[in-house]
TrEMBL record:
Name of the featured protein: Methionine aminopeptidase
Entry annotated with the keyword Protease: yes
Peptidase M24 domain location: 28-255
Binding positions (a divalent metal cation 2): D121, H184, E217, E248
Reaction catalyzed: Release of N-terminal amino acids, preferentially methionine, from peptides and arylamides
Amino acid sequence: MVTYIEAASAPYKNTGVIRLYTPEDFAAIKRACQVTARCLDELANRVKPGVTTDEIDRFVFEFGMDNNALPATLNYRGYTKSSCTSINHVVCHGIPNEKPLREGDVVNIDVTYIVDGWHGDSSRMYPVGEIKRAAERLLEVTYECLMRGIAAVKPGARTGAIGEAIQSFAEAERCSVVRDFCGHGVGRLFHDAPNILHYGRANEGPEMREGMIFTIEPMINLGRPHVKVLADGWTAVTRDRSLSAQYEHTVGVTADGCEIFTLSPAGLDRPGLPT
């Protein structure tokens, strides 16, 4: 049984109920989301061969400090960095380090800032120099998966419609959808109900209602969908070492569809790719 509650009346923890936010809440989370989007815009010119992911992470931290925004991942459940940087066959939660990026890599940079108590969560893929056509195609497919998932968001539809839209397109393009990770409710909590699966059927999952806020963040592999988590407890990689890609937006359900809060103000939602 799915329970919906006005966000202001809900306890400050994930109890499995789905929060419904007000227009004022939408405006507040959008401010956080736009700090995140501007940071990701700034990274477009900083991701290049020879740059380390630690350098990228330091920029994310400093950008947050300059904009009164706290990186949500910093010290989250023991995580020690301000962002996640997932390269090539890393699916998600890659930990920034001193290893330099190389020509031909693709890297997902996932940033969440907290502004006035609200979480703005988004990620983008960045090509490092010239990349192979197979990698470029994966980025194109993954971004299209994200946008098809977003197009399925409307009141009265079920969250399974998001997953069906993503899965049907990805598999038609001979790619696979990672099952081990999903989108999630977000707002004053970093991770909240409901879970947003990136596969499934349109008649499955909770009904979407006006006022819901959640992320859509499909992880798409060139090979098989199976992943494993490394010994560090965070880094998830494809078991077959095939390339993986991910794009993420935070969205809110409106009366007739949805609003994307994390859109790039500079039009760089797919940096390095033709628009």
